[in-house]
From TrEMBL:
This is ATPase AAA. Residues 253-277 have a biased composition (Polar residues). Keywords: ATP-binding, Nucleotide-binding. It comes from Desulfolithobacter dissulfuricans. GO terms for molecular function: ATP binding. Belongs to the IS21/IS1162 putative ATP-binding protein family.
Length: 277
């Protein structure tokens, strides 16, 4: 292709916003020339590059917009460390079918059991499947809602929260809300009922949710909606960190006991076995 042709082709691709094709054009043309590639293959290659680049950009945007506190992908979650987890249900969640069906997911269990990790990993899977995802702590969301109401901006915020395909609410129950906060959170959740998925992590059992929301009738209405066709995962196992530190201590302990055994065998460091003996 001559200089003028290349110039026009680049300009056209730019106009059509095919930026990856613009970027890769010259290299791909050169490779095509060198390998004797036909025009059909060349076009397939270039369009593939554009599609791959758009998918990567979309994923980056979805992840950025989700505001995950840490990026903890599925691969970093050690399933063998939690044999009590219903693996079949967890694997099913990784397919994001529950988002298509507008079902909710609730993780209940004590601190350190991996609830936030699992919610983040599933949130990342949702992003990969191009679902609009938002991760927020319950406390953070309630504060945001209260501020928006003070700024007369509540309707806009409620609308934004209703548009996410998956809303992850982390740490329900860590901090109780004011009556106003509880009502606002109720509004967000009620708005999404059967329209979008909510994933909640909580250290409290359902029976204790009234403590957080204050109002018994409101809690009952909320639970009724949230748990309807929901996937509930009870994380009733020991804290991962605790298991880890116990395991560390056990392995350190065995090292200590090994080194303790040495002096008994006459090989201690304070009385080394002399090579000259
Ligand atoms: P929770 O939200 O239940 O309090 P976290 O998700 O914050 O617990 O987990 C506590 C720590 O332990 C985090 O650093 C998390 O990445 C890690 N963790 C928990 N469970 C696992 C697991 N099964 N595999 C790998 N890391 C885990
Ligand atoms: Mg957590």
């Amino acid at each position: 292709m001559n200089e003028t042709g290349l110039f026009e082709l680049k300009a056209n691709l730019k106009d059509l916003k095919l930026s990856a094709m613009v970027r890769e054009l010259e290299t791909t043309l050169r490779q095509a020339r060198d390998s004797g590639m036909g025009y059909d293959e060349l076009l397939i290659d270039l369009t593939r590059l554009e599609i791959a680049s758009r998918a990567a950009n979309r994923l980056k945007r979805r992840i950025r917009e989700a505001w995950f506190p840490l990026l903890k992908p599925l691969e970093t979650f050690d399933l063998s460390a939690v044999p009590e987890l219903d693996i079949r249900m967890f694997r099913e969640l990784t397919t994001c079918e529950y988002i298509r069906e507008h079902r909710n997911v609730i993780f209940l269990g004590p601190s350190g059991t991996g609830k936030t990790h699992m919610a983040t990993a599933l949130g990342l899977e949702a992003c990969k499947n191009n679902y609009r995802t938002r991760f927020v702590t319950c406390y953070g969301l309630v504060n945001e809602l209260i501020e928006a109401r003070e700024d007369r901006d509540l309707q806009r915020l409620l609308k934004r929260y209703s548009r996410y395909d998956l809303l992850i609410l982390d740490e329900l129950g860590y901090i109780p809300f004011s009556k106003e906060g509880a009502e606002l959170l109720f509004q967000v959740l009620a708005e999404r009922h059967e329209k979008g998925s909510v994933m909640i992590t909580s250290n409290l059992g359902f029976a204790d949710w009234t403590q957080v929301f204050g109002d018994q009738a409101m809690t009952a209405a909320l639970l009724d909606r949230l748990t309807h066709k929901a996937r509930i995962i009870n994380c009733n196992w020991e804290s991962y960190r605790l298991r880890q530190s116990l395991a560390d201590r056990r392995s350190n302990g065995s090292e200590i006991s090994q080194s303790c055994e040495q002096p008994r065998q006459g090989q201690g460091t304070d009385q080394p076995v002399s090579v000259t003996r």
